[in-house]
Write a structure and sequence with these properties.
This protein is an alpha/beta fold. The protein contains eleven helices and eight strands. The longest helix is centred in the last third of the chain and has 18 residues, at about 180-195. 1,3-dihydroxyacetonephosphate binds next to strand 8. Pfam families: TIM (PF00121).
Length: about 250
């Protein structure tokens, strides 16, 4: 088992050309641990700028994509286009896409298939709402979200997928999951993968945590055996992101 620690930033719908240039410049000169894979999720329109200027040991992700390569789909962006402008990854199934935009498990799964076919790597986000946690259905919800992808992707290609467990109640709220809460769900996701895909995929898939990750809480979370990294929102727009990138050092 060798799961390289993985840290993603998700800038969401934030940034200006000037602010992004400053942020990238600060990331480019920062010292980072050798054994960490770093990916930065960037709004579509800034991907070329970031892909051109970001340090080459980090990669760029789109924050969404559509399920077709091209055609009459006004306002959509294809996985092929993301690749063309320098993204190597795409974030799919983020709770803001599922819950604010209304994307279904099936649609997310279709996106995962198309993105992988186009040669992108995928950050697959899953996670429960507060009322689902309180109702004791966290694992059922997460398994249902994963089921759709397993059904669509099958057993191949899991080397190109990183899972991000992001409890919706922890996103942007300052209410981080405790290391024990994160570990419990991550271990259950690994167990799920063992049964639904294979023991190999379960052992090798990175399962990262997202939801109010900060410089203050990242080290404790990183110590848990099934926490293989982070997907970071707000703190990924600040120099603090570097502390999180180095959380496992
Ligand atoms: O949604 C997230 C990352 O995808 C988490 O956002 P915050 O880190 O701002 O809570």
């Amino acid at each position: 088992m060798s799961r390289v620690f993985w840290v993603g930033g998700n800038w969401k719908m934030n940034g200006t050309t000037a602010a992004i240039k400053d942020l990238v410049a600060s990331f480019n000169t920062a010292a980072t641990a050798p054994a960490v894979e770093v990916v930065v999720g960037v709004p579509y329109v800034y991907i070329p700028l970031v892909a051109d200027s970001l340090r080459k040991d980090w990669a760029v992700a789109g924050e969404n994509c559509y399920v077709k390569a091209s055609g009459a789909f006004t306002g959509e962006i294809s996985p092929e286009m993301l690749k063309d402008v320098g993204a190597a990854w795409v974030i799919l199934g983020h709770s803001e896409r599922r819950n604010t935009i209304g994307e279904s498990d099936k649609f997310v799964a279709e996106k995962v298939v198309k993105a992988l076919e186009a040669g992108l790597k995928v950050v697959l986000c899953v996670g429960e709402l507060l009322e689902q946690r309180e109702a004791g259905t966290t694992q059922a919800v997460v398994n249902r979200q994963l089921d759709a992808v397993v059904k669509a992707v099958g057993v191949a290609d899991w080397a190109n997928i990183v899972i991000a467990y992001e409890p919706v109640w922890a996103i942007g709220t300052g209410k981080v999951a405790s290391p024990e809460q994160a570990q419990e769900v991550h271990a259950a996701i690994r167990e799920y993968l063992k049964g639904a895909v294979s023991a190999d995929v379960a052992a090798n898939t990175r399962i990262t945590y997202g939801g109010s990750v900060s410089a203050a809480n990242c080290q404790e979370l990183a110590q848990k055996s099934d926490v293989d990294g982070f997907l970071v929102g707000g703190a990924s727009l600040k120099p603090e992101f570097i502390t999180i990138v180095n959380a496992n050092d």
